[in-house]
UniProtKB/TrEMBL annotation, chains A, B, C, D:
Catalytic activity: (S)-2,3,4,5-tetrahydrodipicolinate + NAD(+) + H2O = (2S,4S)-4-hydroxy-2,3,4,5-tetrahydrodipicolinate + NADH + H(+); (S)-2,3,4,5-tetrahydrodipicolinate + NADP(+) + H2O = (2S,4S)-4-hydroxy-2,3,4,5-tetrahydrodipicolinate + NADPH + H(+)
EC id: 1.17.1.8
Similarity comment: Belongs to the DapB family.
Functional note: Catalyzes the conversion of 4-hydroxy-tetrahydrodipicolinate (HTPA) to tetrahydrodipicolinate.
Enzyme class: oxidoreductase
Residues that hold NADP(+) according to the record: R37
Protein's name in the database: 4-hydroxy-tetrahydrodipicolinate reductase
Chain residues that bind NAD(+): G10, A11, S12, G13, R14, M15, D36, G78, T79, T80, S102, S103, N104, M105
Length: 229, 229, 229, 229
């Protein structure tokens, strides 16, 4: 059987190495083109890549998309901290080939975002999102909390208090969504146990993305729950 | 405006009183026929009732349904501990007029049951349901935990370990659904703060049920998310 | 057996009524002098009171202490929102008769404050206090969170981030203390189920206070763990 | 400065490697004698070891203690699953040189065990211990839960329900102690984020143990809170 050929942008970075490890442990997959910023670009080698995974940096995005567009190679991107400029780039390039971007590649967070939709039925409740991360994390609130907040707002159609952030120790990533009425409290909580969670999600997303015929800007949720028309 | 006329079965019981209080605080609603087991049945008065609420006992169910069927008056029933016999009665009578039965009338638990569907996407996870109730509660696990377990099984299509039960103090009712993989843990948790939660849900369900034209066996979830065909 | 004669300041208020109910359900205790602001003060009746309980308001404190001092009647005070002025009054009057003041009368919170001492052994961890209360509560953070923060600071001897506050629904009162290192997370959490918790604690404190021979400013922790010299 | 010379029993095992890594990252410490079952025992080398760490197996304990006793070298032992026979060995050998044994070497669990003492003040509450571990863990409940249960029993002086155990995914180790009354719930919760927590605790314990002049059977709690007479 032909193996799925992965390209990794930022291959020697922390996430790049994690992704390579997961690919190596995935049947029918291989790390074909591990690429780093300082490497010379090999267009002929890139032509054979089936799918790119990029967790590098906002600055790298433009080159990544431009190069992938040459051969219409699908791209899975897990970089966070994008401004409008980068989001526009994603929109633009995804018109001609499949691009999947999510601020959090974990399956559990995708399920959490999906579960938020059920809160539309109790939109009169009070809501609060909270996240806990290790004391090295600088951005507050986390990109995942921002996405949860956007989805929650869409579901309950009202303004919400800002997400709360706790920083301490080596907590890998906890996100909580509180729904509170006079009579009951509902808490949806996600806890990431290690970094592999994001690498596994990205590889699963890539395997799914190569099967998508249509260009488009996909999310990890589409992998689990199907692309909304 | 004409007020919605409520009948209450077991009106002097703990839940009956709670329900009466909620109805009295609901605009456009009145307690029209508070009925207790020892009362003589007044068929003419019953004819004017718009909707019955019954939280009395499994033994009472047959009479409740039979009497309601006389005038096709909708019935909201929150009694638990039903055997197959009572469930068959619900099925039978609901063929000719609207009946709504749920083991837990809280909106939050209905949302929790709905949110369980999203777990179908991660059915390879390990799952565990847990409940905590006050030390006076005798049945283990709670009726709500049993319903959650049934819905979770339906969603993830596999066998699950038995729900765990903790008994202590005056805890009103906590239910947790754990979803666990090697990389992440998702917890959906519901916490009832007081008894009113069930009365409020029942009254809201009754207000909705009187508008249903079709006979049928409804659940609290249908009130929030629409009846599945 | 002679019954313990309770005086209640603010007897018709929400907490006053709750306290009266607990006293009535306590063997060997009676509500002897329920007093409200608008009542005329009856000094002869007050002379027979064994112990006062006051949850009224900061403004009332001076009168309460002055009147109690007449007969050296012990006072249990659960009022919050005291400025330095009121705290000085407590100090002053407690030099001549026993006064017990706590921002939170629950036994569980007293245990939580005691348990914080064990965190001195891991003072290199990161810490964060968090509280959740109903959406009617205006002060942020809660008086209890402030006391926990003071005790935590004393235990770990370092600066701490401000307590976080969530407001929503009818949550009666949740307090959490997070201790986080690179390898582990410890959470101490207290959840008040109802208002009775404070009334019960106050009555238990009063029963204990009448047995204290020495004047002094006591806390609910002294009731459980003994007065520190 | 002279470095502290560590011996590791089971050096090539999973915990042995973890311990070696922590020692290498500890200033003033070195892995001097990494020993495995199949190795030939080098008594002259062993004579220079300052402290042994052993996480190998119950079967190995007798040899470990016998060999350490030759030079009265202190031993830190983190092996679990000991029967009365092994516990007797610990008692016997610790009469002539310092031995420290704990079923859980984490600082946080030691603090949790210490915090349990404060529950003596509310011994009329209901209690429940619960633990969650990965789906590969076979023993139920965990050794740590058993130790917590013993300490809790000692504190509250009454019978307790059996600890509850949840198995799922890759959860590294969660322990909860519930204290519940009609009015409040207190939860003490510990969450281990990775395996390093035990290695770090063991190395810290060893550094402390070499300074103990007196023979005796110590625990990790003594490192943090001082040996009880």
């Amino acid at each position: 059987m032909k193996k799925l050929k992965f390209g990794i942008v930022g291959a020697s970075g922390r996430m790049g190495q994690e992704i390579a490890k997961v690919i190596e442990n995935t049947k029918g997959a291989e790390v074909f083109y591990p690429f780093d910023r300082e490497d010379k670009w090999d267009s002929r080698k890139a032509a054979q890549v089936d799918v790119w995974i990029d967790f590098s940096s906002p600055e790298a995005l433009k080159d990544v998309l431009k190069r992938a567009s040459e051969h219409k190679t699908p791209v899975v991107c897990g970089t966070t901290g994008f401004s409008k400029k980068e989001k526009d780039l994603l929109e633009k390039y995804s018109k001609t080939f499949p691009v999947l971007w999510s601020s959090n590649m974990s399956l559990g967070v995708a399920v959490l975002n999906e579960a938020l939709k059920s809160l539309a039925a109790i939109s009169h409740f009070d809501f609060q999102i909270e996240e806990i991360h290790h004391n090295k994390k600088k951005d507050k609130p986390s990109g995942t909390a921002i996405t949860l907040q956007e989805n929650l707002k869409k579901a309950v159609q009202k303004d919400l208090p800002e997400p709360l952030a706790i920083r301490g120790g080596g907590v890998f990533g906890i996100h909580k969504v509180y729904s509170m009425s006079d009579e009951e409290v509902l808490v949806f909580e996600h806890n990431a146990l290690n970094r592999t969670v994001f690498a596994k999600g990205a590889v699963q997303a890539a395997t799914w993305l190569v099967k998508q015929k249509k260009p488009g800007l996909y999310q990890i949720r589409d992998v689990l729950f199907g692309k909304k028309a």
